[in-house]
Amino acid sequence: MNPAVLSWLPSLNAGLNLASALLLILGFIFIKQGAWTGHALCMVSALGTSTLFLISYLTYHYFHGATPFPGQGWIRPVYFTVLISHTVLAALVPPLAIVTLTRALRSQFDRHARIACWTFPIWLYVSVTGVLVYWFLYHLFPGR
Asked: Are 101 and 43 in contact (CB under 8 A)?
């Protein structure tokens, strides 16, 4: 893959994660206000941005490989704590999101709400920490 394309994929990935986080928060606000349509649109859009993120992320890492963290000292365990929790929880998001969406599409709203209580905070945490990992790697220690 063209190195010029690869160079901007991490920023795209962070932007998609940020968009997902904002859509999740907005969807949460809508459901608390009883705005079902706004909630549904935000959540489906969050699923779309997260899916685009996953495609872009896998493409980047297929062609580029891992990016080592160059930080030393106290920041190193902070980074790896965030990264490990992000990675473990990220593995849960696709199945949780699919089950949550499926229950909503089948109008099983009680069951949808029960699993959404787990899906929402995990998905939001993964989206926010994805942006944080990007910041650690590409802005806290740029060019290293």
From this structure: yes
Structure tokens at 2: 């063209």
pLDDT tens readout for residues 90-128: 999 999 999 999 999 999 999 999 999 999 999 999 999
Residue 107 to residue 109: CA distance in whole angstroms: 5
Reported as a pLDDT band with limits 50, 70 and 90, residue 46 is very high
Q: Where are the domains of the chain?
A: 3-140
As a three-state string, the secondary structure of the chain is CCHHHHHHHHHHHHHHHHHHHHHHHHHHHHHHCCCHHHHHHHHHHHHHHHHHHHHHHHHHHHHHCCCCCCCCCCHHHHHHHHHHHHHHHHCCHHHHHHHHHHHHHCCCHHHHHHHHHHHHHHHHHHHHHHHHHHHHHHHHCCCC
pTM of the model: 0.94
* pLDDT reported for residue 3: 79
